[in-house]
Amino acid sequence: xxxxxxxxxxxxxxxxxxxxxxxxxxxxxxxxxxxxxxxxxxxxxxxxxxxxxxxxxxxxxxxxxxxxxxxxxxxxxxxxxxxxxxxxxxxxxxxxxxxxxxxxxxxxxxxxxxxxxxxxxxxxxxxxxxxxxxxxxxxxxxxxxxxxxxxxxxxxxxxxxxxxxxxxxxxxxxxxxxxxxxxxxxxxxxxxxxxxxxxxxxxxxxxxxxxxxxxxxxxxxxxxxxxxxxxxxxxxxxxxxxxxxxxxxxxxxxxxxxxxxxxxxxxxxxxxxxxxxxxxxxxxxxxxxxxxxxxxxxxxxxxxxxxxxxxxxxxxxxxxxxxxxxxxxxxxxxxxxxxxxxxxxxxxxxxxx
Length: 353
Hints:
Layout: E1 2-8, E2 11-16, E3 32-40, H1 45-49, E4 59-60, E5 65-72, E6 84-87, H2 97-100, E7 130-133, H3 136-139, E8 140-142, H4 152-156, H5 161-171, E9 179-183, H6 187-198, E10 203-207, H7 211-220, E11 224-226, H8 230-240, E12 246-251, H9 256-265, E13 266-274, H10 286-292, E14 295-298, H11 304-316, E15 327-330, H12 334-342, E16 349-352
Helix pairs in contact: 5-6, 6-7, 8-9
């Protein structure tokens, strides 16, 4: 088969790789082989692509994919061969206490695509032709039937991006009537706009300086756009909310500057939900939080715990989060997909088999 491998800064290649196989021996039988139908590039993938996170050895890439089950282990009971499935961006068993408590990203048997599973076996990245899924019954969710081509982009967002935005909104305490500010106009931030609208927010401010992203943000439910940053951005936000700031703020970037923007955009007693991968040195100013009673909650999104709730609305078309994909390329052109996102020529790139 072929798969995506990163070798270093700006060096992503589509190349031959070994076919995945079901594991054997003690503890085996829980996995499945999935033929990837669609995958995508995540903003977090760009940290390694840009050299912010150093690549010390070649590594398989991709953690968002959907596809069709080709083989299953003898202990798999829920997932069947032929199912069209959504894979969470991590591997989890959905039976341990952390999974049952709603935080499957802290599964006691967690594994990561392109890395190792709980038993130390190599796992393929999602940007390839096939992937072995270590805990098929936990990680995978079968759709009600075989989706149309038009449904697939929307279903793919349930692997990560839309549900990461949803986690940010939930963590920020968004509810009916909330005033919300979204810091970050990438695919996750835009997903946070859509999630906030779904949760009943009455006013949603998208901080954005890009016309195409502003337009999609408005379609998703943004009522206001703030292009300013820093102190000017804080003042512009406060001016919209009686001089005090918003009830809820979504932080979807992960830098020191974006985190500061988010904290200062919240009203006293407000809440910040953060999901931006911390790659730019964000800091938590405890004295500022103490003085303002602003709360902070969030982290890596436990998307597997949300899929069952959101899948019916996406399947029916009531929610269309796949509109964040504004460029579609064949998987073999993955290097161009990374370049397009790195150069901000695309919000998010869909990769097709």
